[in-house]
């Protein structure tokens, strides 16, 4: 008697509610479903693959598994129902296998669709329905619920990495575009639009999450670089790039961190990618150019500095770097012009005075050199090269005593005595 009541209850619930409202209309057979649920309602056996698929779907929304997943043969369908407060998803394994292809996106879509019914609160309890405590939804309402479940499924598959074509493959092959006025399910075109909306949201949401993760690792890398943990910084910048391959700032800072560890080829490679991702940032060209300058690629350094100046004519460091590379190519006149521009932009740029003074020595403008180098020493009292070059400027002006004084100071600050070969001092010959 108990089994008979159960069959009747499930007959009314399944026939008027779950089968029509919450399952995919792929040639449903009601009688096997009634028999399956009645017999199996107290004997649920899980299917490992289906359970794993359900876990994948729920992981997308961060939800706990609050559904009983039940294989049920001969129903040619997948169905979401609720019974005595417990939510069930019944599925026909043969039916699921018949639409399986590739990464089983078809199976996942159907399962996600049924989860969507539960998540959106569509599945009314069969006991309450049989007791007439709740009423069945109208046809327009049920069609809307199908669209909501489709949108949810599209969102889930988008998050899991399915393309739009893979996501809509089941609907394209099994749904139809007939008039849906008297149907529990919307027409195919309406369902495809819903899936498309969900899939787009899934990709946008996924992108946002990845961008957040990328920024978190990027910030961590910056903090490690500040405390000179360059190896740790490189690891974090790499993770930031893994999450967002377009994070040009992560490439830039990974490149500068690699330079700190003397990985010059790696640094140039990263800075080059950063430039490709964002070719309008002057400081990236400046960073790459400084490495080229260190590697004695003077022409490459000049090209990068010139690009930085093109992007930002007020970048005094770019003029300074270009001037230094021009000195390496013995273009002292051009170097003097660049150092002058750098000083105009930053009147307290001590090294620019030092290098302009040195360039003027090569141009035999000893008085101009003396003025620049004196200013450099005023700004940078421990600049050994400023003292060295001022010694040469004074020597060029026949101020032997002043030259010797500066030579001794340069030596005291660390200049090798061999660099003072042209300075002849009466007392110690500059040694």
Note down, in words, how this protein is organized.
The longest helix is centred in the middle third of the chain and has 39 residues, at 188-226. Helix content is 68%, strand content 4%. A hairpin with a 2-residue loop joins strand 2 and strand 3. It has helices at residues 2-22, 30-40, 48-61, 93-98, 105-119, 126-130, 139-160, 164-174, 188-226, 230-243, 248-260, 264-277, 282-294, 298-311, 316-328, 332-345, 350-362, 366-379, 384-396, 400-412; strands at 67-71, 78-83, 86-91. It has a three-stranded mixed sheet. The chain folds into three domains: 2-186, no CATH class; 280-347, Tetratricopeptide repeat domain (Serine Threonine Protein Phosphatase 5, Tetratricopeptide repeat), CATH 1.25.40; 364-431, Tetratricopeptide repeat domain (Serine Threonine Protein Phosphatase 5, Tetratricopeptide repeat). With 431 residues, it is mostly helical. It has 20 helices and three strands. The model is unreliable at 1-35 and 38-46 (pLDDT under 50).
In short:
The protein has helices at 2-22, 30-40, 48-61, 93-98, 105-119, 126-130, 139-160, 164-174, 188-226, 230-243, 248-260, 264-277, 282-294, 298-311, 316-328, 332-345, 350-362, 366-379, 384-396, 400-412, and strands spanning 67-71, 78-83, 86-91. The chain has 431 residues and is mainly α. A hairpin with a 2-residue loop joins strand 2 (78-83) and strand 3.
